[in-house]
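User:
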Amino acid sequence: MVKDSAGRFAGDTATATAGPEPAEEEPGAVRRDYVVVHYKRDGGDYDGWGPHFWGDAAGSAEWGDPLKPAGKDLFGVYFEVPLKEGARSLGWIVHKGDVKDQQTGQSLDLAVTGNEAWKLSGVDGYLLPQPAASGADADLSKAAAQWIDRDTVAWKGEVAAANSYALAYSPKGDIAYEKGDHTGDVHLVRLTPGQLSDAQKAAWPHLSAYGALKVDPRDTGLVRDALRGQVVAVERGPSGALLTATGVQISGVLDDLYAGAAKIPLGPTGGGALSVWAPTARKVELALYDGPAAGRRSVHPMRRDDATGVWSVAGPSSWRGRYYTYLVTVYAPAAGKFVTNEVTDPYSLSVSAGSGRSQIVDLDDRALRPDGWTALRKPPAVRQDRASIYELHVRDFSASDATVPAAERGTYKAFTETGSAGMTELRSLAKDGLTHVHLLPVFDFATVPDLVADRAEPGCDLAALPPDSDRQQACVMETAAGDSFNWGYDPLHYTVPEGSYATHPDRRIREFREMVAGLNGAGLRVVMDVVYNHTHAAGQDPGSVLDRVVPGYYQRLMDDGTVATSTCCANTAPEHAMMGRLVVDSIVTWARQYKVDGFRFDLMGHHPKANILAVRKALDALTPGRDGVDGRSIILYGEGWDFGEVAGGARFEQATQAAMAGTGIGTFNDRLRDAVRGGSPFDADPGVQGFGSGLADRPGDRLAHYEDLVRLGLAGNLRDFTFTGSAGTPVKGSEIEYNGGPAGYAATPGDAVTYVDAHDNETLFDALAYKLPRDTPMADRVRMQTLSLATVLLGQGTAFVHAGSERLRSKSLDRNSYDSGDWFNRLLWDCERGNGFGAGLPPAKDNEAHWPYARPLLADPALRPDCAAIGAARAGFGELLRIRYSSPAFSLGSTAEIARRVTFPPSGTPGVIVMRIDAAGADPAVKAIYVVFNATGKAADPAVPGVRGARVALHPVQAASADSVVRQAAADPASGVLRVPARTVAVFTETSGNAA
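Assistant: Predicted structure:
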């Protein structure tokens, strides 16, 4: 076995991505009930390295205990992973502790790749054995050629003038590679060398270095037929010998040929009519069922429109209410053959329990509307920068609330129980000023069985176990895959309400609407968390919907044709016209039919900016008279993170933080979050302190930098906002550094969504448990919680808080509770039951590395708050809300007004930030507002310009505070000093006239 200079295998291997032929010393024939993974590390150090696996493995591997090698061979070591009966795929990633060999996991489709693979440390992808042949680069399981429009194929590498090129296609799907050439019922679309135009390079920037091949004009009439079969790109040398054969990515040519499909109604289109876009299918039929689980079905042909690729059937209105699937006969690259997929409708509006069948429904049906739905009165709309948002999980809200009827706990119906503890709390928060409730995913997702009878819950007495025990998490994890809880970031059907949140899945539509009405009635508008950036599965997986209708189109593919998984799962491609359209159509349906008031886009940076702007445009077109909603009042925001295969605009202009500035669409501001909490969510040591978590008592350069990030965040994180920084000199937001880039990125105050905790990472209380000195009294922990939340609620821009933060909510230090069951995700409205801290060590999968830090904290009874502490936190949070909405000066609404009115006078003390807002003309009752954030353990008395001789007093809300310490804060106009107790945020107002 010989390697080239890059460390790749040469000799008998077909390509640099092909693996070695098994040597004599290696194991013999691989058993079909195992996958064998060969692994090689330079230097031969394998201690602690092993695979964590998922999918169709028999048994499980905990993250903290990766699989041990089964033996050594000439390649390195190998691991044997037993498979379930009927296994189809296996996912795996090699790691040592929290250090991953590469950042994304590997996936083996056993039908395509077999049961054996080789992995070189640090090299993307895995290696597969290829038969020794003529040296041709022929791997039909990959798709390295990209057909970007009807005339052009982008070719990875040099296009040699002496060679010949073609697209080989087979209407039978039987092209194979044998004995140095392809075989099968092959037809050819001839290709000639060309060049990518500037417009093509701009549209496909990640292909700008590719060669180009042009479809021979004599063969343009073959293009549509070719796309409905197996397509392989072929390169031959001057002698005719096959040099290269690879599959072809077809999204671009489909968008070009079938652009007219963008205006054709899809899904249930009225009465019994149905339409589905499936341009590559050979045949599509409708399977109509009498019920959600009935075995009897009738099959109906669907008619193809050759111009659009849309298949349709016009059934009678009596079909309404019946269940259906599509039978799509199509070439599936993942299977390597033609298949007939029975699949649900990508445009489903309702599905059966278990999501196996779509249902024909009319969302305007009176039976699906709760009483008063058409005349629903909403709380007043608020400008995005003035909104305050409460992030809530439907099941968390009521699963542990004994004041909700047992059958309604964890469901939409719980929001209709006006006398429950949870709804009483939400009404109270709304009275304090809260404007929106943000619901974690409530569309149809894959990971919770719809029917209660199909779920399994932990069988242990969790409450009886010690607070620092690992037995709770072990018990919870035993049933996690089939219990009632998941965050839900694994979409099946984007425009169907989740069935497990209904008292019965058949009632999901009406009960979702009842929930919206219940929240609106409590004075709160409703935001929905949407996840269009990935799907639960792809390829031929039974959980795959989109990719079994139009294989290779809806998912984003890497250069070799494998599905990108940088989001966690099978990435979608909203840059493709029909996926982008699906996003817009789905959002509009939720807005019109369910009266949703806002949308939060998960991993929005994986969407094109143009796609999110198209959503905004479509919503803005909705009017109360025509659509029953005012689309302009609907708020939009999302995660503008920049990573993965799209990072840096590699494929399109992304909807990232910087790119969305000035669009009216918000992005989460991680700058202030990290500055207040300290460190980052990825720290190996969770005790790294920030402005709000103890660093204020340890002055230094890091504190000074954090203070500037906080000041900038309080001013809306505006890139052009200039203020006096910690160094005593003027500094602009874009000049402050954050992780190697500019901290300030917003163009208007609504561009930044300010937060210090969310469902991701530890709750704020848990972060402070890790970061504050362990002997910090509970009363001071409450004060630091309130001070940290004050940086969110008293700043310019959208305020965002995690449900329960106002009550010191804990998840027992769990940093990633997406699948941690009801136990670790409890939201406890009864303070006698605590706040969730001390529920046991958090699940090992994502937390075991932190167990040495967590165990002594969880065992300490002094860190479990009593009712007095929880009550104090809630009271302080309510006061912050009331202060925020007491004056329009806290939401000035424009960059110019913030620049003119917001300043940060020097405090003279590290750990103390002073903010002044000139309110004259903005607030008829107040001339100026002063906010002092004293994060230190000592009282502060900054002398603030403008206070001397002025009529300045503690804000009326705080003057009447339940917190006796806050009431001690005072202004001394004679000296110009504002006196603020330790670990306290104090707000002062200046009114007209001179000091008394």
